[in-house]
């Protein structure tokens, strides 16, 4: 088992940098898990609104109070730069100014120019609050037209506006009965990035080190059989990949506070297949003997590239069709497709999930074939012969 | 002597592969990723556009149909409605073709797939309709003679009650923050070149250092020449990076693109000086030095929002002073100021901050690399 032992000596050296990814991933997962709720009831979005009340009458205060019922009122300094910053970073959705003379205009039945708002861009939140303000003022105006006093009109308008439409979710049992909650889906969605970064960084590095010219020549002239050598390499890499995967799965169960049940097993299987893909990819990349700096560039680009292209970092439905059609040629795309179906983001369909598995298995087969091919060409007698000749000449 | 060393420093830099990889290739790859990920996200999720909705008519509801038709015929319609059957509507919703289904029966009800602002707006829209119905029926009940007036009050309201006060001419897309930080990252990665200078001048770290130390050239001259060489190379990388982001990725920097270049170049110089400072201060090996500066640079970029765009605002609330000394935040803030603010006040103060920090780094770097003698190497 010398080869095996030697491998793990190198693994040990690379482990700290790999652990950074795992620790960051787990920490972020913990934070996110605590923040999200598991139920699937519809909740109206609350806007962050700041109100600059230049009128300061009972009427304007009533409006502020009413806005605060369904939204969060944010206190912010009346400083243009600070308001722009807050609007830009979406810390604030709407900066409302209640103009002086609001109450009087309203009583007179005028609704134009009651308010101002610091306007950064025409986004959904500005349109929404704009609509709300129009509705609020025209309701009051309607009640005033009925001959009510302004206090009565405000009270009646607020009462009328408090009607609630019944909102149903399309698939109510999202997470509930399927045993695959939204948190789980998120955890499994980000997992490929960690798997790629950790496995490529460690396994590739180990294989490249083992394959360094001097070490390889030394191993080649030792009495250990070539097949045994390869087998030990495989077992070693396999064990490492399995360990990383098991660790992530175990952490997932702990974070979700329950054992995997029902649909969640599909996700577990999905991630296992993906780990094997990454392992195969690592062996493939290692067979080119990249230098250290090139290897870390490849690791970064594969990890980040797949994450951005295939919907790991950002949901698939925000990506353009062109990007997604390129992404089809990457294994993570099929992983995420399967995960989306398991999480009910797309309709759950067992056959389609198995199709995604099959696509991923095809990637494994492709990487293995390519690796064999590359090794065949690079380490064949002819190419070594040329290398030796070259060395001799120089 | 100065020019001689400068020439060799430049030659040396051009042949360093790490420089090519981390200062040119990696940012290009990451920039492409950012473009793919964040290029259309703003237009798709934040910027207002008509909300597609399916309408299933359970009972004949003429009034509702009229409202929908009048909305759709307006200039900037709020809804894009399609009247379909229940099955078709559910399929559309599941495929993401529509944001929600409105069932118009005796009462309106809504079915959605996600919980978000657009869904909330649909909910508000259906409520709006119910509210108006209710107000009109109130009017007919209590004062039927005024009903006409009430209906007029509700419907004639074509003018918005709210006047927009535009605050900027710039690009309001939050996601271009990632590109600002990408440029800041390239600038700070210049620290690796900075570290390189110190390694070349410390006899215990490299053979080149040993040779440089016993050469008759004055140390300050040789370090100055190396610094100048690194600044030139970093400037080249920054120009390349900004041009790539602005012209190939077509990221909108607002209308003052020409000022983005000097800000980026100054940022790059700051990055090199940072590496030079840490390199001369820390008496550790080459690998440890590189690891220290690279992780410090990444940490600064993290705090300025390379990984999460609103990190900078979070820090601005908790420890506002940190954004004024964090090089990455300063550099990306420069671009932000150029894009968003009309006046140059904040932009210039950020530039001054960068310049001051650069001078401090270079000064301290020189001080700590002075008078280093080696008894034996």
From TrEMBL, chain A:
**Record carries keyword Transcription:** no
Q: Name one GO molecular function term.
A: ABC-type transporter activity
Gene3D superfamilies in the record: abc type-2 transporter like domain
Q: Which UniProt keywords apply?
A: Membrane, Transmembrane, Transmembrane helix
Determine if Transmembrane helix is one of this entry's keywords: yes
Residue ranges annotated for the ABC-2 type transporter transmembrane domain, each copy included: 23-372
User: A Gene Ontology CC term for this entry?
Assistant: membrane
Give the protein's recorded name.
ABC-2 type transporter transmembrane domain-containing protein
UniProtKB/TrEMBL annotation, chain B:
State the membrane topology: Multi-pass membrane protein
Q: What is this protein called?
A: ABC-2 type transporter transmembrane domain-containing protein
Q: Does the keyword Thylakoid apply?
A: no
Name the domain of life: Bacteria
Q: Which organism is it from?
A: Ruminococcus flavefaciens 007c
Which sequence ranges are marked TM in the entry? 20-42, 221-249, 258-278, 290-309, 347-367
The record's keywords, sorted A to Z, are: Cell membrane, Membrane, Transmembrane, Transmembrane helix
List the lineage, top down. Answer: Bacteria, Bacillati, Bacillota, Clostridia, Eubacteriales
Localization:
Cell membrane
Entries under Pfam families matching the protein: ABC2_membrane_3
